[in-house]
């Protein structure tokens, strides 16, 4: 009989003799300190693991038992929506939302706020409004709710689902959108003023696949917000998957590219229809994608048991209707326990800090890429009169820049970038001619 030890990168190991499928005995090592709940394991990776909670289920002991044991982040499934909190204009009803927030906080859990501004779930009085009256009412809602919960919310979904499905990559039509394209940034500014301690997220669905027009549209908005100083801290990926909309193979790329813009990313409403090992593998892939991106703060599943789900017939969650752990639960826990707590090297991972002693620092992060070109972004700190040198390698050519005053040497490979009065983040597009190596950047004070 041959005994093998599978190595595990944790310090303390316990060994268990198990029967392999072949009938041969195999000695398998497992981490002695492996966490046994989702929240505890995610915490060991510097992340959270959350769930959506419904206030009317807080009297169900099976539900509450799983909630208290497994999760360290809570989102109100419906109770913090506009129709729930402001059923009559300027008359707020926090009772059900408070039951969830208080339960979570009493149990030492954090809270995601969902959602301050949305075209859907508006109370009747708001649905009938338009123009400046609606804009004011929306901002009043954002300000009052974010102020009421100030200091209690880890992250707010400030704006939910504002982009259109399909190939346009543009905004969704709605009464809020018709108040002017700046309604989203206005909501973010109001939320920041009301609760400066909460992370402010844009949250949407069907933004998981990097090549989808909707993903690109949201990316461009976040890029624009970061460039112009609109206070956005994070992007939420709802992640509602099924066989027609499976977990994309480029999920990690999507999360990393958004993170490279300088925002956190969060998986906010995960559920995956299906069963057995197929479902378990997809769950595992999502968790691994999050663990591979250092700015992915955590994962929230959209409910506890399959029977609690908004699409219960698709059995999309981690616990069955009786509260038993499913294969998907085991795969998520194992992905968390085996995950790395740091960001592994990836082709798109950011940061090439240079010249730290020179009075300013330039940090390069990769942006979007295509078959013939890629975008890069440089964030400068330490001085306002910076001069950044960007060096590309032949046959690369910088064909566009933004947010900088730029000039080139005679080779065309070395660009000198200076501030153009629009902040300390600038970008450029490189036509790579087959050479996709990363440009180098350095900074000096001029
Ligand atoms: O509680 C009432 C009940 O009293 C009434 O008898 C019944 C029949 O109309 O409705 C019940 O309310 C429903 C509520 O869920 C609670 O079950 C609402 O009609 C129904 O519209 C609501 O659906 C929610 C949906 O958002 C719309 O707000 C789902 O629970 C919730 O899971 C879902 O969550 C959304 C996220 O907020 C945003 N992303 C997509 C996600 C899934 O659709």
What does the model show?
Residues 353-446 form the CBM2 domain. Belongs to the glycosyl hydrolase 10 (cellulase F) family. It comes from Saccharothrix lopnurensis. Its EC number is 3.2.1.8. It catalyses: Endohydrolysis of (1->4)-beta-D-xylosidic linkages in xylans. With 446 residues, this protein is an alpha/beta fold. Helix content is 27%, strand content 26%. The protein contains eleven helices and 19 strands. It has helices spanning 38-44, 61-70, 82-85, 95-106, 124-127, 131-148, 183-194, 213-228, 251-259, 276-291, 327-338, and strands at 13-19, 25-31, 48-53, 73-76, 110-118, 155-160, 199-204, 234-237, 240-241, 264-272, 296-301, 361-369, 373-381, 386-391, 397-402, 405-408, 414-418, 425-431, 440-445. The strands form four sheets. An eight-stranded parallel beta barrel has the order 3-4-5-6-7-8-10-11, surrounded by six helices. Strands 12-13-18-15 form a four-stranded antiparallel β-sheet, with no helix packed on it. Strand 12 and strand 13 form a beta hairpin. Residues 1-32 and 342-357 have low confidence and may be disordered. It binds ligand G3I. Ligand G3I binds at residues 77-78, 81, 121, 205, 238, 269, 310.
Kindly state the percentage of residues in helix: 25-40%
Shape: globular
Distance between the termini: 71 Å
Chemical compounds bound to the protein: ligand G3I
The gyration radius over C-alpha positions equals 24 Å
Strand arrangement across the biggest beta sheet? 3-4-5-6-7-8-10-11
What class, by secondary structure content?
alpha/beta
What is the count of β-strands? 19
SSE run = EEHEHEHHEHHEHEHEEHEHEHEEEEEEEE
How is the biggest beta sheet arranged?
8 strands, parallel, barrel
Low-confidence stretches: 1-32, 342-357
Summed over residues and divided by their number, the pLDDT gives a mean of: 88
Q: How many helices in DSSP terms?
A: 11
Strand proportion, as a percent range, falls in: 25-35%
